[in-house]
């Protein structure tokens, strides 16, 4: 039985493939976790708007002067910190997953990827390029792996909502400080909530996109490894792990 369990991994290495199924599950889960974190942020922003700005003014009072935060403002700082941790985990897993699907598409087809590997990272950071390069890498991996298949709608929904959230200034890589966000919640909460909704929608759509792209690669990998069966711990059998 040990030989049967090792065999798929050995064949994958021979083909230059990288395990993708578990990475896809983890990345989709991290996206949903980040979406949940932004739901909590939105709730706290509504609470701030309903409470109203204190008579002492915004936390950042200019010229380097910051007043003491009240309890609600302190808790918003905690919420954004936890959300930042979820976003960092999501980013690390998503980048790893992008590398894997890009490399697997090349290994499966022999085709050179449309985007050089450096763009897996720089594509998120460089102005203008970050408006389409990350989506392009994911779309190219899908189309190369499954030629003739229509790109999943979830990929375009994910990216469209992500760009809306990013341009709104409070996406996962938001520009304003937490104190500035508190001031915005007091004075103009609706733009914040619209951007939050875009990020939440992008996270959910992104989870579906990751699952869809992962599924076609698992299917293609199994086609390249015919007859490979991995016994489960209970004595059943499963197809080779992607």
What does this structure look like?
This protein is mainly alpha-helical and 242 residues long. It has one domain. Helices cover 68% and strands 2% of the residues. It is built from 8 helices and 2 strands. It has a two-stranded antiparallel sheet with strand order 1-2. Helix 3 runs parallel beside helix 8. The longest helix has 39 residues. The radius of gyration is 22 Å and the shape is elongated.
How are strands sequenced across the largest beta sheet?
Answer: 1-2
Q: What percent of residues are in strands? A: under 5%
Determine Rg (CA atoms, Å). Answer: 22 Å
Query: Based on DSSP secondary structure assignment, what is the total number of beta strands?
Result: 2
The number of helices is 8
Pick out the low-confidence regions: 1-14, 227-242
Q: Give the N-terminus to C-terminus distance in angstroms.
A: 19 Å
Quaternary class = single chain
Q: Whole-number average pLDDT?
A: 84
| Secondary-structure class | mainly alpha
Shape assignment: elongated
Topology pattern, helix = H, strand = E: HHHHHHHHEE
Total domains = 1
Portion in helices: 55-70%
Major β-sheet profile: 2 strands, antiparallel
